[in-house]
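Let us work through a complete example step by step.
Step 1: write down the sequence.
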Amino acid sequence: MRIKKVRVSNYRSIKDTIEIDFSQLTAFIGPNNSGKSNILWCINKILGNENSTADIFTEKDVYQQDPKRDIDIEIEFDEPFVYEPFEGEEPARIDKIRCVYKLHRDGPYKGKRYLEKHCLTKDNRIVQVLADKPGVGSTQLFKTLSCPLDKIREKIPVVYIRTDRITTQSRSDIRQTLMNSLLEEINKDFLRKDNTISIMNSDGTETQVPRKQWFDQCIEEAMITLRTEAFTRLKDTIRQSMLDYLGYETVKDEDESLWDIYFKPITSRDFYQSMEMCLYEENRITPLRALGEGVQNAIILSILNAYNQEKSHGFILMLEEPEMYLHPRMKRNLYRVLRSLSEKNQVIYITHSTNFVFLSDFDSVRMVTNDGNGTRVQGPVCDKADQLKENFKNIMSTELNEIFFTKKVLLVENELQKKKLLDYQVRFGLDYDLLGVAILYVGNKSDMLDFVELGLAFGIEVAVAFEMKSAFYADIREEEAELNSRLMAGRERGVSVFCAAGDPDIPVPGFIQSLIDWITKTGRS
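Step 2: predict the structure and record it as tokens.
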């Protein structure tokens, strides 16, 4: 069970309604302060365990805290959540949940907000369930299902790893939540009667004893050891004070068992979950909370990987900037881990790194923008997605991934063209990065056509620069002519096309000047 689609209105930076489609692996990219974190945060508000189901939103979450606006968030799942109001009866199937944070417009609570939670079917009907457990001959009455958000949270646990808002305590909470879930399964295995341990007898023979039986015996012996005089005195003092406060006279010795204080021994489950995870290195034991940011995040991801291997059902992992604090090689490794995790679980993340997006996975990318009038999200719109993914499989350059992080992209055919443009950037005192332009050397005209399609799929302003007779196609001029024709046809779709015919480099070749003019131009032509 995973998130299929989210619709959001009036939440923080999100003004008008946006709809976001999610895949098993979804990457949000975009400028700072465009609203990427708000998308993850609104999901976490509803499905995460950091907020009670009654106090999901506050007034600060409303777009510009406008009293005329209501937060409206709908989350659709890829498969229905099955809820049984009564055992043995027909279950309710919940395809969507909708949370509306509304303002009382009149009445005694005028001006105060309240939260509505709805369960919906695929066709947006409110889910109905039996009002009472049916009996023999009884009339079946139905009522609107009260949203079982706590049950849904149990079904698809959410782990949200943030950046600036993450603290040592929140990391500890994430680790503990994941580890407790894993240890719960281990404890169930421990409690099996056939899970035994060999115990040495006094005569040298061995006896197979259930582990739980041996654990209980060891705990009882530990309790005997812990019952020091000071411990017994403390217990008796608490007991006698309790009786005094309740107005009882001192009970007789034979009645002491009626009012005894009992300290329940620790269970195997408690014992597992009380263990603190530390790192042992060079004869030194260090608690995880004392380690650096990168190691702490790596530990969490390692636990997630263990969760992925041990659990049959999945979780939703949301990360902000997983590239932080990591060496470039570790970034590549981490991306592979995230892809692996997404096979059984859903991974949603925010990134500013070309190491965490790949051309062949372009359909997992969502571009986030904000022009001052609210957050917008753009996924790829392309009718050739499968073919493009196949064409991009053998392109592994992270430099070319920069196409996802730019407003305008200039595709050049060879390295010399790119070098000239970079040289003139210095000569003219320009800054292509500040202008929001990426110059990408793609290698050949066939790949250039694929990059044109990719850029247009995301609404990026695209230009192509190529030579009409390239040395690369010296022996296949007919094929080159056909590719040239297809590139030139891009003009009909808004692509800026620049063709070189061998301009002399005195003082600035017209071909290069035309490219620089396009780079420095603002807005679309």
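Step 3: interpret the result. The mean pLDDT is 87.
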